[in-house]
Amino acid sequence: MSENHSHDHAAPRWKHDGVRVIPGNSLDGNVPSTPGMDRKAAIDFARAGAQKLWAGTVTIHPDAKTGAHHHGHLESVIFVVRGKARMRWGDKLEFTAEAGPGDFIFVPPYVPHQEINASRDEVLECVLVRSDGQAVAINLDIEPVEKPETVKWIDPVHRE
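RESULT FIELD:
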């Protein structure tokens, strides 16, 4: 009986401190930006009280690319919703790989990278999640190599 009483007592607290729904049409575009992309925050400390996550969307116009950047100590996960993403990374953006709808991309801390929309006529739309409640984007001045090396994305568990 005392268990039910404790749940009833907690109920009012969860009403305002529990689950949050952030409507897609109310995302916040006032976040650190990188040239060539439109980033919007959905979940962060200011909007939802998130302590350990940042989540939002990123849109890259057809045939466009971002400037080189990294996200400091944060880990990033990019989920491709629509379009074709080409990622370049490395000290001179010397490595490249592509991802399409349904693919996940992992970017470790401090890795210099660049997102490219590999389509000439379709918008690239992605969902982005980072490992902190605050957004970090550090733009870099990198002279990229002309022909990056293509890298097959194979996770360590499923190597050939």
